[in-house]
Specification:
The strands form three sheets. This protein has a six-stranded mixed sheet, sandwiched between helices. A two-stranded antiparallel ribbon has the order 1-2. It has a two-stranded antiparallel ribbon with strand order 6-7. α1 crosses α8, α2 runs parallel beside α4 and α3 packs antiparallel against α4. The radius of gyration is 41 Å and the shape is rod-shaped. β6 and β7 form a beta hairpin. The protein has two domains: 205 residues, no CATH class; 175 residues, 2-Layer Sandwich (Alpha-Beta Plaits), CATH 3.30.70. The termini are far apart. The longest helix is centred in the middle third of the chain and has 57 residues. With 409 residues, the protein is an alpha+beta fold.
Length: 409
């Protein structure tokens, strides 16, 4: 069965709802403001025509005043009250259409009481009601169609009972009335269809924008993640460093923990690169498990890892305790490493801590941590060495802070 494109689009679904429901919901506030304004203007226009009734057809003065007062005034008041109810805009539009239809019936009843010959010329004004229901109120097309057919039937039923009406007069009136009916309905359909088309286009653009934003966010996230270990990569570290530098002068202490897997080249040569990757993933998991959510854990190089901790992000700053915990947990993984004396994978750790100052860059901390790391390697590996940038951070550490790279846990 053929369906107009307008109704086909309305019946489509957007997520868990239909286009019709979402369309009505999204246009409610704006359409309601427009509906209130148009209704106010039409009511003023309708009651102003009481004066026209009296001027053109003096014999219906009392009839016009009475019917407009006892029927249309309460109906109008009820309509504005209904506009304030928490119902869909489509129901409010239907209420407006029904009141307009009632206004047509009242007007026709008023004119039926006239014996004045000018009533035939004045009756052409009834076509205005068709325009109100199609191109002024611009309700949904189905409301416009049914209400226009009702008003058309009302007008051309009443016309036969007007004083002095003849067949020729009715035909002449229809010659104008039918085109007005058809053309205004076409105008209403085009307006309804075009409004819906633009709305769906905006929805589509908004969905594409949201998808693009989500994908960009995902790409941004991926660009900061090391694909092998799932830890932050050096690009992510650089971004975090830029944010951290803004804390300069806030007397915030930071610590850099630099970790290197001992004899990793020998591990790769003996077990192969696939096992080497598995080893790095296991070590990364142990490091991440030992740290807090506030710590930045980064894969710094091939088999090197870096942890950045600040005393603003962690209540327990104890970086030496953390470094030793990581060293112990990696050793307890008991990953076989036959080419070494230990017989299992171990790590060497270098630590540097100090306050953030405007003239001190993170690279300074990394260089000192790297120096401490190489001191650990020179002394036999599988150990932690520490260097302090400033003694002010000593109380935050698990042992007194001495500006030396020779402190061993």
């Amino acid at each position: 069965m053929y369906r107009l494109p307008y109704y086909h689009q309305l019946s489509q679904r957007i997520g868990t709802t239909t286009v019709r429901e979402k369309y009505d919901l999204d246009r409610h506030d704006e359409q309601l403001r427009s509906l209130r304004l148009l209704t106010s203007l039409l009511v003023a226009f309708y009651f102003f025509y009481t004066l026209v009734d009296i001027y053109l057809l003096p014999d219906i003065t009392a009839r016009s005043l009475l019917l407009r007062s006892i029927i249309m005034l309460p109906a109008t008041a009820l309509l504005f009250a209904y506009y304030n109810r928490p119902v869909s805009i489509r129901r409010k539009e239907l209420a407006g259409v029904l009141v307009a239809c009632l206004a047509t019936v009242v007007w026709c009843v008023i004119l039926l009481g006239s014996e004045n010959e000018r009533v035939l010329k004045y009756f052409y004004a009834g076509l205005v009601f068709l325009m109100v229901l199609t191109i002024v109120l611009t309700p949904p097309f189905e409301y416009s169609l049914y209400s226009s057919l009702f008003v058309f039937a009302c007008l051309y039923t009443t016309i036969w009972f007007l004083h002095g009406a003849t067949s020729i007069y009715v035909i002449n009136h229809l010659a104008l009335g039918v085109p007005v009916l058809v053309l205004t309905l076409i105008a209403n359909y085009r307006f309804s269809a075009e409004s819906l088309r633009l709305y769906l286009k905006n929805i589509s653009v908004e969905q594409l924008r949201e998808e693009l934003s989500a994908r960009n966010a995902e790409l941004e996230k991926i660009s900061h993640i090391d694909p092998l270990t799932g830890l932050t990569n050096r690009r992510g570290l650089a971004r975090f460093t830029d944010d951290l530098q803004q804390l300069s002068g806030a007397r915030c202490c930071i610590a850099v923990i630099l970790i290197d897997v001992d004899h990793f080249k020998a591990f790769n040569d003996f077990y192969g690169h696939a096992e080497g990757d598995n080893c790095l993933r296991a070590v990364a998991g142990a490091i991440r498990a030992a740290c807090t959510q506030e710590d930045l854990v980064c894969r710094f190089g091939g088999e090197e890892f870096l942890i950045l901790r600040s005393d603003q992000g962690a209540q327990d700053f104890n970086v030496l305790t953390l470094a030793e915990k990581i060293r112990t947990e990696v050793a307890e993984l008991a990953i076989p490493h036959q080419p070494t004396q230990e017989g299992r994978v171990t790590i060497s750790v270098g630590v540097c801590a100090g306050p953030i100052e405007p003239d001190v860059e993170l690279n300074t901390f990394i260089k000192e941590a790297d120096a401490a790391l190489y001191a650990a390697k020179r002394e036999g590996r599988n150990r932690v060495r520490f260097h302090a940038q400033h003694a002010d951070c000593g109380p935050h550490l698990s042992r007194p802070c001495v500006a030396s790279s020779d402190n061993t846990l």
